[in-house]
Amino acid sequence: MARRGSYAKGVAKREEILERALEVIATEGYDGASVKRIAEAVGLSQAGLLHYFDSKEELFTEVLRKRDEHDRAHFGLLREETDPGPVHARASFVRVVRHNADVPGLVELFSRLAVEAAHPDHPAHEYFLERGENFRTLIERNLAGQDDAAPVLPPEVLTRVLQAVSDGLQLQWLLDPTVDMAATLDHLMAVLIPASESAPDQAQREGAV
Fold first, then answer.
1. In terms of CB atoms within 10 Å, which end of the chain has fewer, N or C?
2. pLDDT tens digit string along 51-71?
3. How many CB atoms sit inside 10 A of residue 190's CB?
4. Strand, helix or coil for residue 60
5. Residue 19 pLDDT > 90
6. Is the Cβ–Cβ distance between 164 and 76 less than 8 Å?
7. Could you tell me the domains of the chain?
8. DSSP label of 119
9. Is 165 buried (19+), middle (13-18) or exposed (0-12) by CB count in 10 A?
């Protein structure tokens, strides 16, 4: 029983670390989010924090997983279980991208880790592969192949293009904060995924929430 209780406490502490790390990175930026700063935020030493994660890279990878979890819960981003259809999915996607402009530290973390994770031994390598595959699968399910609004590209090409544009816009925005990531992506999706006659107004309303 004591062992089970210790395990539960460990899981709870790990969750606390991830939640606090999200807050620190979002508010203080990537450069301010050292292991030391995150450890202080949860009342641990650096060694104590790394007891729950094998490395700084693993910690940051799990922070990104936690961010994805929050985005799905708060913005309804391409939820597999609801199968929202093209209009709602497009609006949800745009809302997430718009929100990213408010958390530059997390955008920078994602972009930096994505480059580092190209090495197959990096702790974030599998995360980015899985995230990309899930992202494309859900976009294809929710946006492609609509009878009344067929996309202008094959689904497998469309999903790759949207992923590439979304990731690329984040890099452009980090270099030039005047770039409107959400508006640019929304305009592109309007061209690549034509909506039915009543859908544009609905998408515009949902995207403005």
1. N
2. 999 899 999 999 999 999 988
3. 15
4. helix
5. yes
6. no
7. 1-53 (1.10.10.60), 56-207 (1.10.357)
8. S
9. middle
